[in-house]
Structure formats: structure tokens, C-alpha cells
Amino acid sequence: MSIALAYVGVILIWSTTPLAIKWSAEDVSYLFGVTARMSLGAVCLLVLMLLTRKPLPLHAKARRTYLAVALHLYAGMLITYWGARFIPSGWISVIYGLSPFMTALLAVTFLPENRLSLGKLFCYLLGACGLWLMFHSAMHLNQQAIQGMIAILIGAFLQSFSAIWIKRLKAELPALTQISGGMLFSLPVYLLTWYSLEQGQWPETLSTQTQWSIIYLGLIATPIGFALYFYVLTHLSAITVALITLITPVFALFLGYRVNHEPLTLKILAGTSLILFALMLHALLDRRQRLN
After folding, report:
1. Per-residue confidence (pLDDT) for residue 115, from 0 to 100
2. How many CA atoms are closer than 13 Å to the CA of 156, on its beta-carbon side?
């Protein structure tokens, strides 16, 4: 596959995923929406594992790695779906764009080979200022918007914590194996949660928009999105891959504004710009640190 095509594919999938998450839980419960997505994704991953004839190791380190992946797939995604109901879809992409900052801060604590420079501290301060502007914008929506932003922040943090945990374990498992094992751990908990809280009740009505959103997330965003991401990560430099987090929030905000009629105020644009500038500066400093 062309690397450029895979790169564009990741951008398109990551840009459209926030809106699909919001649409997938518009006329059904958020719990049904995320459980249906993960169920479809699990089936798709199982088929990919069978087609590629990849084994699923179950030794101790592999099981701990799957548990680390499941932390993001279950806890991180569950709280993200809960919070996505209360804020514009584009904000999800912007807040998740803070993940590199969270990962870097966690790496300083849990990965001794990393160090924190004054330049990176300045980047985190810029990112915090941008986030504060978005929180200020959320206050003008409603109280639930603040709760939604906090929930998405927790989801992004859990994603970062999961990544650092996986790196510390050093199981050296293929990406497809990691996500499939993580899904094996998280899907039963999703089904149990759905059955416990909603008695496994199927929605009486399911709009076409909701159906296609769930199908897109389950069959495209989950298996193919991850596969393309790890593909470009293998063939391109980390700085080039990191630029994806600078592009997707812009597309996601524009898509939410044009397609879903979401608000796009000056404060939202200013907050997003600060976060994206901080991300770009952080990526450049990281590259310079690696070269030195």
C-alpha cells in the first residue's frame, strides 16, 4: 500500500471519528453505541487475525499488555462516549490532541530515559491556556458541557497511560495482536456492563444515521484506522506521524460546523490554535532532543 495513501487514510478516519461517535449515540444510549461498535470491531479483528494467521500469545507479559490496551478500549472509550453527548464533536478531536502532552508527562515519571526541558514546559503551558479558553467557551453552553470536557480529558489521559504502560511492558507484540488481545479482554466487560445497566435491551428504533455511524466505527475506524496508523508509524518518522494530531482537529471542527451545525466561536478557534501551536512546537523540540 502507498504510504501517502495510508497517511491520508489515517487523517480522514481520525477527523471523522468524533462526529461518528456523536451520531452513533444520538437516538440510542451511549452504552449501546459503544458496545455495538466494539462488537463489530471484535468480529473484524478476529477475521483479520485468521486471514493473517497471526497467533494470540497468552503468556504473562502478553496478558498484561492486553490488559493495558483494554484500559483504553474499555474505560477510556466508555467515558469518551459518555462525554461526547454534551460537547460539539470537533472538541473531542481537539482535546484528544492533548494526548502527546499527557504521554510526555507520564513518560518523564515512568520512563527514566525521558527528560523534561523548559521548552516543553512552555508547550504544556500554552496547551493549558488553549484548554482553558475551551473550558470558558463550554461555560456559555451549559453545565453538562463542562462535564463532557472533563470526561474527554479523562479518556485522553487513559489513552496516554495505556500507551506508557504498554511501552514499559516491552512485550514486543505486533500491533494487530495487541489490539485483538485488548479487544478480547474488553468486549466481555462491555457486554456485561450493557446487560447490567440496560438489561441487554435492544433499541426500539435505530435511525439510518445511527446505524451507519456504528457500522463505520466498528468496521472502519476501529480495525482499519489502527492498522493504517501503525503502518505509517512503521514507515515514517515520529515527527511526521505526530503532525496528524495537528491536522485532524482542524478537519473535525470544520466538519462538525458544516455538517452538524456545531458552534465555532472566536474563543474556540483561539483555544484550538493555542493547542495546535503548542503541539507543533512540542514535536519540533522532541525531534531536536532526539537528534542531540
Report:
1. 65
2. 24
pLDDT class of 233 with cuts at 50, 70, 90: low
pLDDT grade for 291, boundaries at 50, 70 and 90: low
First to last CA, the chain: 33
Alpha-carbon span 143 to 135, nearest angstrom = 11
State yes or no: pLDDT of 1 exceeds 70.
no
Give 161's contacts (C-beta < 8 A, 6+ positions apart): 71, 102, 106
Residue 261 CB burial class (10 angstroms; 0-12, 13-18, ≥19): exposed
CA–CA distance, 71 with 65 (Å, rounded to integer): 10
pLDDT in tens, 84-93: 999 889 889 8
